[in-house]
Amino acid sequence: MSNKKILMITGDFTEDYETMVPFQALMSVGHTVHAVCPDKKSGDTVATAIHDFEGDQTYTEKPGHRFALNATFADIKAEDYDALVIPGGRAPEYLRLNKAVVAMVKHFFDVNKPVAAVCHGAQLLAAAGVLEGRKCSAYPACQPEVELAKGEFMDIPVDQAVTDGNLVTAPAWPAHPAWLAQFYVLLDK
């Protein structure tokens, strides 16, 4: 696998595992990953939240770690990156309101570069208008957004992932092995 330069767009109350695990896993196989957040610079941190599945009607949320950003949002250009990662959690809910973030997401689809989104990351994909005619998995509560964006919501087990063209998606962090494996395939093309 050749070394790729990967952009990760995240924000406060991103899901802890969905941010830290892919960040470290991608770097561990030789990729460069730049984690950024609007209005923050390299060295700043974002708060994370730990979402867990404990038998309630939805996930529970607990305070997570501070995640250190390693690049400055204002300095990056999407065209300098080979791929994009969008973690879930609560961050995509408000990141989708940022026009620069939405434009960055669109760029990766316009030029057909690999994109990996997990859980609530589908909210950002829907806002960018890139799901029409695409299969997309996400946390089940995001099904309406996927379908309103004219995507095909894939109701798959929580530990599975789905690839459609340049996009790999998964319902939540238990899918990391499948999600990352499928993203590695896209990165190696």
TrEMBL record:
DJ-1/PfpI domain segment(s): 4-182
Family statement drawn from the similarity comment of this UniProt entry: Belongs to the peptidase C56 family.
Domain of life per record: Bacteria
A GO term for molecular function: peptidase activity
Matching SUPFAM superfamilies: Class I glutamine amidotransferase-like
Example of a GO biological process term: proteolysis
Keyword match Hydrolase: yes
Pfam family, one: DJ-1_PfpI
Keywords: Hydrolase, Protease
Signal peptide coordinates: none
Organism: Marinomonas alcarazii
Name under which the protein is recorded: Protease I
